[in-house]
């Protein structure tokens, strides 16, 4: 549960993380435009596309239906294995990715990302059509914009325990 509070600078009222995160949809968390490729596209072509578009993922879709997702983590794994980059991306993608609906809340998205270790989740509309991709950087941007007092007032090392007393 998200229960941290921010003191409002001009109103003096406390704004509860929980209320805002459970009220606003993922559309408010700066999703990126979807970048989709056909399952038959070669890994080499996908890597060139990732480089040219300066992104770290593509959604693999056929006839508008999501088949999987391919990220820079998948690419690193292939490089470490010395894999053939001429194979279709469908052979090496992460199949059947977890997805969000555009009406899902930011709080739900954070929980799904944290539990599954996901950094990117495709967002679908009511007809299951790809609308965008929610990235962890979008969540971070959302938090900074909506809760600046909490973010900007964090100590440099919030979990650091001082071993010796400091000062006079």
Write the layout of secondary structure elements.
Elements: E1 5-7, E2 14-16, H1 17-21, E3 36-37, H2 43-53, E4 57-62, E5 65-71, H3 72-81, E6 94-95, E7 100-101, H4 106-116, E8 120-124, E9 130-135, H5 136-146, H6 148-152
Parallel strand pairs: 3-4, 7-8
Antiparallel strand pairs: 1-2, 4-5, 5-6, 8-9
Walkthrough of the structure:
- The chain has 168 residues and is of the alpha/beta class.
- It has a single domain, classed as CBS-domain.
- The chain has 6 helices and 9 strands.
- The strands form 3 sheets. The protein has a 4-stranded mixed sheet.
- Strand 3, helix 2 and strand 4 form a beta-alpha-beta unit.
Offer a few descriptive terms:
alpha/beta; CBS-domain; 3-stranded mixed β-sheet; disordered N terminus; 4-stranded mixed β-sheet; 9 strands; about 30% helix; about 170 residues; 6 helices
């Amino acid at each position: 549960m998200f229960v941290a509070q921010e003191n409002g600078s001009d109103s003096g009222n406390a704004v509860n993380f929980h209320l805002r995160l459970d009220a606003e949809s993922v559309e408010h968390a700066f999703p990126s435009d979807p970048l989709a490729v056909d399952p038959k596209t070669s890994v080499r072509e996908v890597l060139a596309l990732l480089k040219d578009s300066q992104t770290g993922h593509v959604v693999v879709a056929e006839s508008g239906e999501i088949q999987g997702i391919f990220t820079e983590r998948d690419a690193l794994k292939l490089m470490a294995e010395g894999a053939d980059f001429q194979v279709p991306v469908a052979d090496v993608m992460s199949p059947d990715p977890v997805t969000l609906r555009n009406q899902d809340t930011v709080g739900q998205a954070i929980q799904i990302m944290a539990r599954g270790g996901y950094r990117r989740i495709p967002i679908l509309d009511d007809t299951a059509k790809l609308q965008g991709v929610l990235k962890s950087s979008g969540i971070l941007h959302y938090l900074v914009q909506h809760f600046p007092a909490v973010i900007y007032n964090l100590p440099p090392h919030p979990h650091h325990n001082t071993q010796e007393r400091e000062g006079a």
